[in-house]
Each structure stands twice: as C-alpha cells, then as structure tokens.
Amino acid sequence: MLLKKTLLKKPGLYLVTDNSALEGRDLFNILSCSLKAGLDMVQFRDKETSDRDFLETGFKIKELLKHKALFIINDRVHAALALDADGVHLGPQDMLVATARKILGKKKIIGFSANSFKEALEAQKQAVDYIAIGAIFKTPIKPGYKVAGLEALKQAVNMIKIPLVAIGGINESNIKEVRSMGVKRMAVVRAILEAKNPYLATKRLLEKI
Fold this sequence. Notes:
The protein has 11 helices and 8 strands. α3 packs parallel to α4. With 209 residues, it is of the alpha/beta class.
C-alpha cells in the first residue's frame, strides 16, 4: 500500500464516476477502455444508490481494476472497508478524517476535498494522503459548487506539501493550462464518461499531462 501511495506523487489521471454523466452508457466498458489507455486511479462515486447496490457495483469495479489502478470510494467509509478498496475520498460534510483513519488504519489512502487554498491548508493538518482542490472551472456536475480557480491551485501547489489533485471542469481543451500550474494529477468526469471513444479520450488527456 505504501507503494500505492507513492503513485499519488506521479503525473496521472483520476477518473471520478458519476451517474448523471453516464446517461445510460456502460461504466464497465468505459473503465476497461480507459485502463487500457493508461488510467491509474478511479473514484467510485454514487450518492443515490443503496448500500447493497453500491457494494455489488463496487465489487465488479474492483474485479475490473485488478490492481491496475487505485480504487477509491467516495464518502462511504464502511463500503471502502467492505470492498477492501485502496482508500476513501471525503468532503467537509463527511465523516471526520480522524474517525475514518481509525476505521481504515494507517495504510489506506484518504483523500479530502478543498474548495479554496485556505481549506487546502487546513486539510493538510489532518491525516490525509492527498487533497483534491476545485472546482478549477465551472462544471455542470456540481452546478452550485464555488469555483476555486487556477490562482487557488497555483497557491496550493506552492504551499501544500502533500500530493494535490486538480478537479472540476477539466477537459482536453484546458488540461495543459492546469498542468502548467505545477499540479501533477488531474481528476476528470465528463471528459471520459461522455466521450464517444473513452480509450482515445483518456490517451489524449494523458498525453497532455
């Protein structure tokens, strides 16, 4: 697991699943194509479904990944434990990081969402392994979410000592600009989930990282 944590420090692409972006598309086919193209980190996010259905899908995703990519669970610490996922991603309204760390132990990855440079500084004081800062750009996935912007990202890159992930509205047209801020890992949703060819979309995004 320590080797997996070192992956967070390397340039890469982080796919976050979202049912509203899928619109009936086959998630498993998308994941399979993206993995072949070099995707190395996946966050399974589904806030609406029951625990039973979440776990059923989670086990299928885990089997598909087969250690080819980090498997992160959004919010549901108990599900991350049941699935023996690589870690969990938490937000300010989720379980306290300290509590999640007690449940998951020191070896599991814990990520945390920050909506500003100030929040990122506060998050760094907790037992987290990476901080996802955003939204960098406006995104329909979270229409009411405050835009942190590139300036907040640049500040975070200069001041935060743990791995950072840029998230929010990142796509093929702006990913090079985000990368130029110094952040190594980018999270995307629609740029892959809505792509006609997930393999090529992933390949092109990675080339620009």
